[in-house]
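Help needed: design a sequence for this.
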């Protein structure tokens, strides 16, 4: 009995802390009523949370094939003549091959055809060599052909690389129990290449099985198939269950002339299992489905937007106010989620201001804390420089978190005061292809729905609604001692925060909920992409005394699945 009470108290404490975090970042309102909230445990097992990226062309990013597509011949190099290499060049190439020297350079011919011929000739001499035309390190006015030993990852000399129309390899990364950024770092470490070489459209969760497209220039797909081998070897003798060897596999290779950038997706398809659900009726589930499809849910920025401690927006606020010292102090303050070695290092710095010793106490030096402490060790009082030592994405994460906080607070005040009513002066997207927004006239209000209305993410280049929301925005900023002018280049012109717009509500285009009965808490309840990759068939028994719900829905990019769950579960502890 005491064990049950202790567990319940622990769950209550967790819920209380989460609710407090949620309130701090403006997650205060709901719009759907008249149904029994869904209950259940979220992410109990890895396959209980599956995300499949939806590409810009609408295709689902399910991993299906490990075939390597035929690479079209680069017609530009088809008729290129091979030339005799000089004795000096041959001697230099041999030194590179024997690893006497790391690279060898040859003055690059001015004529493009002659340069192409030189690249092909070096490739014919030995296909283990890789060439590129680059600036001379000793004289930037001159160009050289730099010759190195070919990496196993990439195609070698210029003539053997895919042509301009096929220079980017796109592939599907199917991963489990690892974040997208950690998967990229691990993959790049395995292939001994810089992580900036790999690009992707969006981040995916750690706890779950997720599929997304990735891209790398001149990458040889055979290298990725080699990395897949341990997973398939571990599963060869497993007839039924999946052996989760390694953390990802890759396939569905495709060559393209285009790279892949952040935001190059249309959305994500979710398959979520909630376990230990209280008994619910199909009638209640049908009501939930109807309300979501009819009204949608509040398009809040979820708690994950604000970091593990729910306070990255506070760092962003200090940056925007150009109070860089307070921003640094906030980042370097340990919390309940801080790892022990990091906690010890940060506490040492707080007590002594000895950044160098604190840096040396860290296990992983390339972390946010490590980069800041390294910068402060060199220049102890230059807090702005310490912030700029962070990766660009990390710097903008803080200011974007503050924008998200202001947006959440503004939406909550709007719905608390006016419910789902559309107001004169509200903003909607323009109907034409030029983008931008326009204000609703009194005549347009009756035919509009709250899901059409957008509110601005604060920035120096936004339109604001001509109604109460304009006052809400000003009041929220004033409470933090700020104004719209603070969003101009807090860390330099490249960090100007221009602002954008976001729909108040979102209506999912599809939503389904199915009841599954089960008996064992560790019982697998759904088939996964890994099952299909391994040729394993699976069907839930659908029997037992316990109840689970399988939820399936699709959301556009930057829309949080946890906020849909929050709406139907009436809980922030998700």
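Sure. Designed sequence:
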């Amino acid at each position: 009995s005491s064990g049950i009470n202790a567990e319940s108290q622990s769950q209550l404490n967790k819920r209380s802390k989460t609710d407090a975090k949620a309130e701090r970042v403006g997650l205060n309102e709901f719009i759907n009523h008249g149904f029994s909230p869904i209950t259940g445990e979220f992410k109990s097992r890895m396959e209980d949370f599956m995300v499949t990226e939806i590409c810009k062309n609408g295709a689902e990013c399910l991993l299906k094939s490990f075939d390597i597509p035929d690479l079209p011949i680069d017609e530009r190099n088809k008729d290129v003549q091979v030339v005799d290499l000089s004795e000096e060049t041959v001697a230099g190439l041999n030194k590179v091959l024997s690893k006497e020297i790391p690279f060898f350079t040859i003055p690059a011919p001015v004529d493009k055809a002659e340069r192409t011929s030189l690249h092909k000739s070096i490739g014919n001499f030995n296909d283990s060599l890789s060439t590129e035309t680059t600036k001379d390190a000793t004289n930037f006015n001159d160009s050289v052909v730099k010759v190195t030993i070919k990496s196993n990852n990439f195609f070698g000399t210029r003539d053997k690389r895919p042509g301009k129309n096929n220079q980017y390899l796109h592939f599907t990364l199917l991963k489990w129990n690892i974040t997208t950024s950690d998967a990229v770092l691990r993959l790049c470490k395995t292939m001994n290449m810089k992580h900036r070489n790999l690009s992707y459209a969006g981040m995916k969760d750690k706890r779950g099985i997720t599929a997304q497209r990735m891209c790398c220039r001149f990458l040889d797909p055979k290298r990725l198939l080699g990395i897949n081998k341990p997973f398939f070897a571990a599963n060869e003798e497993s007839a039924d269950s999946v052996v989760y060897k390694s953390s990802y596999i890759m396939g569905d290779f495709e060559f393209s002339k285009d790279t892949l950038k952040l935001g190059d997706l249309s959305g994500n398809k979710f398959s979520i299992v909630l376990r230990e659900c209280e008994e619910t009726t199909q009638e209640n589930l049908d009501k939930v489905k109807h309300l979501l499809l009819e009204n949608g849910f509040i398009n809040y920025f979820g708690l994950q937007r604000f970091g593990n401690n729910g306070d990255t927006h506070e760092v962003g606020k200090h940056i925007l106010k150009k109070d860089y010292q307070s921003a640094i102090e906030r980042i370097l303050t340990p919390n309940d989620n801080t790892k022990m070695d990091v906690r010890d290092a940060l506490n040492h710095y707080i007590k002594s201001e000895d950044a160098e010793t604190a840096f040396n106490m860290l296990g992983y030096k390339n972390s946010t804390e490590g980069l800041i402490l390294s910068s402060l060790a060199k220049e102890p009082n230059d807090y702005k420089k310490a912030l700029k030592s962070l990766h660009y994405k990390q710097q903008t994460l803080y200011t974007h978190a503050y924008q998200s906080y202001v947006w959440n607070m503004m939406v909550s005040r709007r719905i608390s005061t006016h419910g789902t009513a559309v107001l004169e002066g509200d903003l909607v997207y323009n109907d034409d292809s030029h983008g931008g927004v326009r204000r609703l006239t009194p005549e347009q209000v009756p035919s509009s729905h709250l899901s059409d209305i957008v509110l601005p993410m604060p920035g120096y280049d936004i339109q604001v609604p001509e109604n109460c929301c304009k006052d809400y925005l000003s009041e929220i900023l004033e409470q933090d001692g700020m104004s719209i002018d603070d969003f101009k280049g807090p860390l330099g012109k490249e960090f100007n925060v221009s602002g954008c717009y976001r729909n108040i509500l979102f209506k999912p285009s599809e939503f389904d909920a199915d009841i599954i009965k089960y008996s064992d808490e560790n019982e697998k309840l759904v088939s996964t992409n890994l099952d299909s990759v391994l040729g394993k068939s699976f069907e839930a028994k659908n029997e037992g005394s316990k109840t689970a719900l399988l939820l399936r829905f699709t959301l556009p990019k930057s829309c949080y699945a946890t906020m849909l769950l929050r709406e139907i579960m009436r809980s922030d502890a998700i």
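The chain is about 35% helix and 20% strand.
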